[in-house]
Amino acid sequence: MTSIFWTASDIWVMTKRNLLKYTRLPQLLVFSTIQPVMFVLLFAFVFGGAITTPGVSYINYLIPGIIVQAVIFGSVQTGVGLAEDLTRGMIDRFRSLPMARSAVLAGRTISDMVRNVFVVLLMTGVGYAIGFRFQGNILQSLASMGMAVLFGFAFSWISATIGLLVKEIEAAQVAGFIWVFPLVFASSIFVPVESMPDWLEAFAKHSPITVTVNTVRALALDLPVGNNLWLSLLWILGIMAVFVPLAVYRYRKSV
After folding, report:
1. Which pTM value belongs to this model?
2. What is the predicted pLDDT for the residue at 229?
């Protein structure tokens, strides 16, 4: 019981350390939110008129997808942050301290999840400013945002593994985005997958991003969720079951 308490205490210290960085360098948080805002404005006012979403206004269709996109892109910062700590020797300093090794990874991913909560709230506010409205009750609305944050948390572990593999800040940034971009655009974030070519639709329909976006959108707009909720939860559990052990293994190898 005592060891669990001290491990939790170490995780809290590392989480607080990572969050304090945003208060001292607020531009990190500002620039991480500019990109999703630009995507909202671009697709809503430039491309939105050419995209058909039967039964739903395009703004209501777009915002839940953009929220998921924002947390996915935000998860890339987990790998970049770990690569930065490795490059600057912080990981070696942490290793010399009497602290749980799990605290470094857990503190990083939890702090990035907290940042994603802020990003989700911001994107919801931007959406409301241009016409988006939740159609479900308060519990459905909170559940939709919670699902997005949880999905981003799972993706943070993928990013953590990549950051520990490449070990360089620039490489972590490139390696983090290069595989995310195709998955994001080959999904239902911006357009219905039915509008895609048959071969791409088959892939996009079963993508974890599409399944999660459909869940978030259904909860936000009070639409039938179907099997999407359980499938997205399975994807989240599956991603974490694979990448949490991989990240821990790479962390032990790197130090």
Report:
1. 0.89
2. 92
